[in-house]
Amino acid sequence: MWRFLATFQRRRRDETPLQRIERVVSRLDRTTREIFLAHRLDDMSYTEIAERTGLSVKQVESRMAKAMRRLAEAELRD
């Protein structure tokens, strides 16, 4: 058991920042992941994302906040 935990922790330490981001983003629900990627990678505004997804701008803001919280939590844990 302890060996497994040590291996797991070592693997996490060996992750690059990009790998850590990819791991966290891959675990987001589909809609939140798509919103995060559209905003951060495609440089879409919240309004554009809201129009594309059919969500309100407030819902898009909430999903982005959720994604950013998850990334921050992962950074603090690792």
Which CATH architecture?
Orthogonal Bundle
Give start-end ranges of low-pLDDT stretches.
4-8
* Helix content, binned percent: over 70%
Number of strand elements? 0
- Main beta sheet: none
- Going by CATH, the homologous superfamily would be Winged helix-like DNA-binding domain superfamily/Winged helix DNA-binding domain
The CATH C-level name is Mainly Alpha
Task: Please tally the helical runs, counting DSSP H or I stretches of 4 or more residues.
Answer: 5
Task: Describe the overall structure.
- The chain has 78 residues and is mainly α.
- It has a single domain, classed as Winged helix-like DNA-binding domain superfamily/Winged helix DNA-binding domain (Arc Repressor Mutant, subunit A), CATH 1.10.10.
- Helix 2 crosses helix 5 and helix 4 crosses helix 5.
- It is elongated and about 40 Å long.
Task: Write out key terms for the chains shown.
Arc Repressor Mutant, subunit A, 81% helix, 5 helices, mainly alpha, 78 residues
Q: Briefly, what is this?
A:
The protein has 78 residues and is an all-alpha fold.
How are the elements arranged and paired?
Elements: H1 2-14, H2 17-26, H3 30-40, H4 46-53, H5 57-77
Helix pairs in contact: 2-5, 3-5, 4-5
